[in-house]
């Protein structure tokens, strides 16, 4: 006999979803007539074993007819708990972590429902404040809600997260006004320079640029000049005070809401410590007499304007999240619940194609000399790789608009699963004429890119560029013999402080997506790449003293096809370790490699057992880079401006002088003591992406292996 039981009247933290309760076997050996429950599959977020057992007792009392002894129900409940504990542990962990992330007391989300980059405010890494957020955080949120939908069979929170993304971080129509774009001349060339002190970089109007081959079909398909892509950075609490709320421009510090901002714009040596945060909508209200524009670009005159930058790996991860939401909803006959959102993911992927083109739409391959390398026609400017960024902007009051791609691609940004979804899943294919075929080409090109960059040991080297030094320079002679479709190998694409491929996290982030693609498709090329990478990482994970160490920093030597990697530093970082475990889980689930499965399981168990906090799962870290709070930020002589709070921007400014608000942060005394000669401060950070990675890795393992 088969029973289906769902308790709908429980509170949200105590829902039990139960199916397939098979009841048989006479229990005469204990002297009463009863039935033994032998199989149960359930999900319960609570961590309290006693509370969980009580709830099972309540359920069993409901199942048995009146008069059944309650002691029997308790015996059965305890036995049932012991039996089901192992079978539900990893999904249960996912739900526990999910609940921590969504507990308002823990501070992961703003009052507008936007995920912060971190719970803690004193945080300087890619963002320069913890209560900023990134398109990366949004994409992780979507993925988190997709898996929650799989577990609960309710995908409403996934749809809600996408709606929040549209409301706040995809620039709304009134934040993209004045479009007057000529796809035959997408942008005016301005060279990327090596150091911030070399800026502003002059506009060079006579450098040939190519034509934008996708603009017209996007306008024809969607009926709008707006770009449907995420801007990469939001000042969620309007700490800087620009007040660039969606649909608004420079409302100032009194504006209550998330504000678009930007930071990086001055070449590969501009680490976060050397940035001058700037408004995305520059009406010359703040900054200097030309707003912030003449810090970055040299021109004869300056026009009030808006501009946005996209981090393509985040938009691709959002597409990836939509793929899983659709797949899991479809498995349960609920595809219609996510259909509208999934269609929007196809649209997001359509515009994401701007990442597949050279910065100035120049021809791909041996593109040396800004004046000598011609502009591309049609798709000649497409490298079909997911590049570091793309950007778009316009004059505030019409007159001109511009769009650029990027000629530099990092292996860490590639996402073959997203490319597969956008080209092979009917519900997700872009509506434009060539969107799906472009992503099919991209899928093939990405796999080829992994092959080109794989080291002798198995890890993946940095990337390749069509624009050496960001200005179409002549590359070193040793890089010209073995190119990638005429693009030159670069071990540290785009950023050099620190080197963009030093951080190990790029490895599991990208290879996890490769493993997911392999899991879905069974692609033999993907498997061969994974075989080698998995062998390498399994040999580099250390299990010692009841915990683990994964790589943190990597050092690179050689050039393709003879690239070598060495691990120079390890850590117990929960985010990268979780991403590693999830990568191994997908690989093991498809290949059947039980040894790799056990490594993934051991990592997950040690992460969970060792690093619990009230707010999530985290490891204390020593933040040596905070010695740079007093570092000088280059501002040209005779340039002076102000932030909305009055902080002065002038020659001799420092990171902290441009961010005086940090001196009111509750954690500032730790940094101040370090700057006075004390030890480097210690922090236990709760980054949204890392906390999501913990949840996703635990839940994915549970889903893949039913454990």
From TrEMBL:
GO biological process: cellulose catabolic process
GO function terms (MF aspect): cellulase activity
InterPro entries registered for this protein in UniProt: 6-hairpin_glycosidase_sf (IPR008928), 6hp_glycosidase-like_sf (IPR012341), Endo-1-4-beta-glucanase_dom2 (IPR023309), Endoglucanase_F_dom3 (IPR027390), Glyco_hydro_48F (IPR000556)
Superkingdom of origin organism: Eukaryota
Keywords: Carbohydrate metabolism, Cellulose degradation, Glycosidase, Hydrolase, Polysaccharide degradation, Signal
A Pfam family recorded for this sequence: Glyco_hydro_48
Gene3D superfamilies in the record: 1.50.10.10, Endo-1,4-beta-glucanase f. Domain 2, Endo-1,4-beta-glucanase f. Domain 3
The protein's name: Glycoside hydrolase family protein 48
Origin species: Phaedon cochleariae (Mustard beetle)
């Amino acid at each position: 006999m088969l029973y289906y039981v769902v308790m709908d009247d429980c509170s949200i933290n105590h829902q039990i979803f139960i199916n397939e309760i098979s009841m048989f076997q006479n229990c005469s050996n204990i002297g009463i007539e009863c039935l033994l429950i032998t199989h149960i599959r359930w999900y319960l977020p609570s961590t309290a074993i006693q509370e969980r057992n009580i709830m099972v007792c309540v359920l069993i009392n409901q199942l048995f007819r009146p008069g059944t002894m309650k002691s029997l129900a308790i015996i059965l409940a305890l036995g049932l708990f012991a039996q089901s504990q192992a079978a539900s542990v990893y999904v249960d962990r996912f739900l526990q972590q999910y609940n921590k992330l969504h507990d308002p007391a823990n501070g992961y989300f703003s009052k507008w429902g936007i995920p912060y980059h971190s719970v803690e405010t004193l945080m300087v890494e890619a963002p320069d404040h913890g209560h900023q957020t990134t398109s990366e955080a949004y994409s992780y949120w979507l993925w988190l809600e997709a898996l929650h939908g799989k577990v609960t069979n309710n995908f409403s929170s996934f749809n809600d997260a996408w709606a929040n993304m549209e409301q706040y971080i995809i620039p709304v129509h009134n934040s993209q006004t004045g479009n007057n774009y000529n796809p035959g001349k997408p942008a005016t060339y301005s060279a990327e320079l090596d150091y911030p002190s070399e800026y502003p970089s002059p506009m060079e109007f006579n450098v040939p640029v190519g034509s934008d081959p996708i603009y017209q079909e996007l306008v024809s398909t969607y009926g709008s000049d707006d770009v449907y892509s995420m801007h990469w950075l939001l000042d969620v609490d309007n700490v800087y005070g620009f007040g660039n709320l969606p649909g608004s421009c420079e409302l100032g510090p009194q504006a209550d809401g998330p504000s678009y901002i930007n930071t990086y714009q001055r070449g590969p040596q501009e680490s976060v410590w050397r940035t001058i945060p700037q408004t995305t909508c520059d009406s010359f209200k703040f900054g200097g007499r030309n707003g912030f524009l003449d810090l970055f670009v040299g021109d004869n005159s300056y026009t009030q304007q808006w501009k946005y930058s996209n981090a393509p790996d985040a938009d691709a991860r959002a597409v990836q999240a939509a793929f899983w939401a659709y797949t899991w909803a479809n498995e349960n006959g609920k595809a219609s619940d996510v259909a509208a959102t999934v269609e929007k993911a196809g649209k997001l992927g359509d515009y994401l194609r701007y990442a597949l083109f050279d910065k100035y739409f120049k021809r791909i391959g041996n593109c040396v000399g800004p004046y000598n390398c011609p502009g591309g026609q049609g798709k000649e400017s497409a490298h079909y790789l997911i590049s570091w960024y793309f950007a778009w902007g316009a004059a505030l009051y019409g007159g001109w608009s511009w769009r650029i791609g990027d000629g530099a691609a990092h292996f860490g940004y590639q996402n073959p699963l997203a490319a597969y979804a956008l080209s092979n899943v009917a519900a997700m294919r872009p509506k434009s004429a060539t969107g799906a075929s472009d992503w099919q080409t991209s899928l093939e090109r990405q796999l080829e890119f992994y092959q080109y960059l794989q080291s002798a040991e198995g890890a993946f080297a940095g990337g390749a560029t069509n624009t050496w030094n960001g200005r179409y320079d002549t590359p070193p002679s040793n890089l010209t013999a073995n190119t990638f479709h005429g693009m030159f190998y670069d071990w540290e694409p785009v950023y050099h402080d620190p080197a963009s491929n030093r951080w190990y996290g790029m490895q599991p982030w990208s290879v996890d997506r490769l493993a997911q693609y392999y899991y879905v498709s069974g692609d033999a090329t993907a498997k061969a790449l994974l075989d080698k990478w998995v062998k390498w990482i399994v040999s580099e994970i250390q299990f010692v003293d009841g915990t683990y160490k994964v790589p943190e920093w990597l050092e690179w030597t050689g050039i393709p096809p003879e690239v070598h990697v060495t691990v120079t530093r390890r850590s117990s970082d929960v985010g990268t370790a979780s991403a590693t475990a999830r990568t191994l889980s997908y690989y093991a689930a498809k290949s059947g490699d039980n040894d790799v499965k056990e490594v993934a399981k051991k990592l997950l168990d040690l992460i969970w057992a060792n690093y619990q906090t009230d707010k999530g799962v985290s490891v204390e870290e020593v933040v040596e880079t905070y010695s740079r709070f007093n570092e000088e930020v280059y501002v040209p002589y005779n340039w002076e401006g102000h932030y909305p709070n009055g902080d002065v921007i002038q020659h001799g400014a420092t990171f902290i002088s441009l961010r005086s608000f940090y001196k009111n942060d509750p954690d500032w005394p730790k940094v101040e003591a370090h700057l006075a000669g004390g030890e480097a401060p210690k922090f236990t950070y709760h980054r949204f992406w890392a906390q999501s990675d913990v949840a996703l890795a635990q839940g994915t393992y549970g889903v893949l292996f039913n454990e």
